[in-house]
Amino acid sequence: MRIDIITVLPELLKSPFEASILKRAIEKGLVEVHLHNLRDFALGNYNQVDDYQFGGGAGMVLMIEPIDKCISELMKHRDYDEVIYMTPDGTTLNQGMSNHLSLKKNIIILCGHYKGVDQRVRDKFITKEISIGDYVLSGGELAAAVLCDSIIRLLPGVLNDETSALTDTFQDNLLAPPVYTRPSEYKGMKVPEVLLSGNFPKIEQWREEEALKRTEERRPDLLK
Ligand code: ADE
Predict the structure, then answer these.
(1) Which residues, 6 or more positions from 196, have their beta carbon under 8 angstroms from its beta carbon?
(2) ipTM value greater than 0.90
(3) Which of 22, 62, 144, 187 has minimal CB crowding within 10 Å?
(4) Where is the tRNA methyltransferase TRMD/TRM10-type domain (predicted)?
(5) Where are the domains of the chain?
(6) Quick one: CATH architecture of 2-152?
């Protein structure tokens, strides 16, 4: 998979890909992540990428021309399955969307900033608009990092058995059951007996029941 991220703040997006699982996925060649600084496609001597909005009002808007140049350049070299715009008024991200996107070959992610992008960018280039939740971030960069993490960990070969995504919360629309590790007793607090029993069908049954219980208590909406 290849992910191209267009941003005015590439430095904000470096470190998420330089540690742990995402770093290893890149090193193993399972994913390529390319950051593109929108200013490299800027206009005039002032490296302009944004301007005041027509009709007045506070806040700058990212201009269409640098974004058009950047996306057109990328599209010269390969076909893209999706051009995603990170925005608080997009569809709220969920596990199903990440599963779906993890099957794509090439995607572009455009990070909004300030008041967002010229609507014509959204009309002409964008195939999906994604929000990571009902709150407003300073820009789309951290949201893009969240989206990339949720996709990349699903790519075959990225996680090993111990970290398998199959038992994650939200797979099968259930929250994950409680987990415990050593010691089996700490200051009088005991690990549920069944987990120490070695009876694996029983353990599996306990986990399913606990997952259902937790989902009913915390997220009954997932069971509908
Ligand atoms: N940009 C600003 N806030 C955002 C959000 N909640 N999700 C995605 N992109 C954003």
Answers:
(1) 184
(2) yes
(3) 187
(4) 1-224
(5) 2-152, 169-223
(6) 3-Layer(aba) Sandwich (3.40)
Residue 43: pLDDT over 70: yes
Per-residue pLDDT of 138-148, as tens digits, reads 999 999 999 99
Structure tokens at 113: 């900033």
Say if ligand 1 is within 6 A of residue 133 CB.
Answer: yes
- Which atom of ligand 1 is the closest one to the Cα of 136? 3
Ligand 1 nearest atom to the CA of residue 86, by list position = 9
Domain 169-223: state its class.
mainly alpha
**How confident is the model at residue 163, as a pLDDT?**
62
Q: What amino acid is encoded at 86 in this protein? A: M
Q: 10 Å Cβ neighbour count for 68?
A: 16
Is the pLDDT assigned to residue 218 strictly greater than 90? Answer: yes
Q: What separation, in Å, do the N-terminal and C-terminal C-alpha atoms of the chain show?
A: 33
Q: Which atom of ligand 1 is nearest to the CA of 134?
A: 6
Ligand 1: centre distance to CA 64 (Å): 19
